[in-house]
Amino acid sequence: LSGSSKIGKSWLMLWLGIQVARGQPVWEFETHKSDVLYLCLEDTYARIQSRLYQITDEAPPELRIATTSFQIANGLEQQIEQYLSDFPKTKLVIIDTFQKVRDSKSTGGKSGMYAGDYDDVTALKNISDKYGIAVVVVHHVRKLKDVSDPFNEVSGSTGITGAADTNFVLKRSRANETGTLLATGRDIAYQELTLKFDNRSHLWELVERKDMEDIHREEIPKFIFRLVDYISEIKEWRGTATQLITQVNETEVTPNVVTKILARFSSEVFQPQGIEYKTKRTGTSRLIYLKKNDGNDGDDNKSAI
Fold it and tell me: Is the pLDDT higher at 26 or at 253?
């Protein structure tokens, strides 16, 4: 889980630990009730206790918290394995933050940055796989933004996101209570969760969840759906793109854009609605043909174009 500093990652992780320890859902996702180990390595016990009182009246005894630990390849793995032996019901380990359990040598040289990042995450993943537990690692993002792929903003090399089974990026502007949790991984499809941080309860509340189908559907211009309604009503239409936008009183798109939109989205929008789409190039323009089929193939010989 990566995100900028001071945007609420630790509040989210503390609440996550409480919910799993109680076996209560995390938003609309069910949890498996289990013991939880939270390595809160950037805070003091006093600060953690203060945060707990703001989230809950009584913390579950299945949630255990530590503020110090060894580092990866310097005893951390053995510490966690010994802990799992002492508390075998533990199924979730949260490490906050990743940098606190890393040896500075593993991130010092550019030539070995990818290898160091990959090896450190793999060391934790090996414990996860061996004992069948979830290990959530809290990390930071760099200041340089990447509009095309927010997961490239994760601090360090791609060895971190490449070795992890699942990656989350929490994005939120300082002046805004609403944020977005982006999720992708080997076992889950890409999805976006819109969250709102309540400054009184210090909890992240789920506002909306979108999967790839929802996200892609939002990319489809509203003009396409208005056109589906229009053709469903009149059954058949023929003419140029200019004539089409005039006919449907369209003001948001131009004729050139209409042609591109129809070519891109016709198969996934028109076909499921039983609308036939064809184009024909003439000497001076391109003709568009749209027809709402009735589902009866008996008179296909009479509707040839």
Answer: 26
pLDDT of residue 114 exceeding 60, the answer is yes
pTM (two decimals) = 0.73
245 and 197 housed in the same domain = no
Main-chain phi, psi angles of 265, to 5 degrees = -110, 0
Identify whether residues 143 and 269 lie together within a single domain: no
Structurally, how many domains does the chain consist of? 2
Is 193 in the same domain as 277? Answer: no
Domain that residue 284 falls in: 220-302
CA 90/CA 128 separation, integer angstroms: 11
For residue 303, pLDDT beyond 70 = no
CB of 169 within 8 A of CB of 181? yes
Please answer whether residues 27 and 218 qualify as being in contact, where contact means their C-beta atoms are separated by less than 8 angstroms: no
Type of residue found at 71: Q
Is the separation of the CB atoms in 12 and 196 below 8 Å?
A: no
